[in-house]
Give the backbone structure.
Amino acid sequence: MITIYHLAQSQSDRVVWLMEELGLPYELEWFERGEDMLAPPEYCALHPMGTAPTIRDGDLVMAESTAIVQYIAHRYGDGRFTLAPDHPNYPDYLYWLMFNNNAQTSFLVNLAIQATGITAANENLAKTTQRRQEGLYKQLDARLGENPYLAGDEFTLCEIMAMTNLTALPAFGGRTIDDLPNAQRYIERVSQRPAYRKAMGIAGPTAPRPAP
Amino acid sequence: MITIYHLAQSQSDRVVWLMEELGLPYELEWFERGEDMLAPPEYCALHPMGTAPTIRDGDLVMAESTAIVQYIAHRYGDGRFTLAPDHPNYPDYLYWLMFNNNAQTSFLVNLAIQATGITAANENLAKTTQRRQEGLYKQLDARLGENPYLAGDEFTLCEIMAMTNLTALPAFGGRTIDDLPNAQRYIERVSQRPAYRKAMGIAGPTAPRPAP
């Protein structure tokens, strides 16, 4: 049985979502952020990186959700929601599976820059980060204008990875999708999935802390 | 035939390395950075993100090296240097394949913070980034004290992805590995591979620009 160490509110809700999509059992351990809004020491002690999500599977403790979702889908889900190397859309699948990491990098660098403003010392980094983020988000919107899902016709792990960036990051200073109509329709469509609704009710941004 | 759009000096040398390891033919198109040290407009025009590496394979133009190396190894390399889902070390493979993206995120956020110094506005981000980076690098050193390669006994794409961070980023303000003896021995060992030496001679940090 996989244990999901859930940091509320965080990206760890996507692992709950995947388990619900796959119909797999799991245990949820709930951690609240400290008064400084950071993960508490008990959470950071789970894994060397101290990041959410972190899961346990027997002796294995694993962080980094791009790795976690592939591990679960291939090891316990018969490869559901993944595309095989001979699938025509395999390169799209691999590329969009990395949207989260690319979007997060831009988000965090922008946060650091916004904290102090653009100066001569960080203007090159600000410029490349802005270019990269704008290119990526507009590419996403164009992609979703031509395909129902990021990898193409099928719902895949790319959705599991991308939704948090599109739905939750704007409240923390991340890029909004107000100018991206296809991304907006995509969120509406994907968020109607029963497993998504169930998972967000359990571990999403507004989910209540479970009774002890 | 795959075309590698090589931005000198950049992470795009890892795609050259992979092609040499697999013994696959490729074309290399060489781009120099501008006087501002950024990728030139011609490079940024290749792909929406404007990042290196970018490759072309027929009609497909692809960025994001974590995706690119898996695409090439699975589509053209019979899955060499990858681990299958039923391999005992599959979770290690997936996790360490993401070392590059995690290390790069910390590197870029730290660059942004170093440009202006730590203030009340960015101290939480500085703290979490430092914790994440230190945890990750020390986990890497511990891992390499017990295994010859990041995924375990076998050389995999994890090496192709990780080497740039360990060898080239310190010159740009990235974390050094002076205090990580196992990582130092790993670099020595991996950098003796004939394909690595050949690739670095063609596209590495000190490779000469090819004659036009």
Summary: Chain B touches chain A through 57 residues (CB under 8 Å). The radius of gyration of chain B is 17 Å. The mean pLDDT of chain B is 96. The first helix of chain B runs from residue 13 to 22.
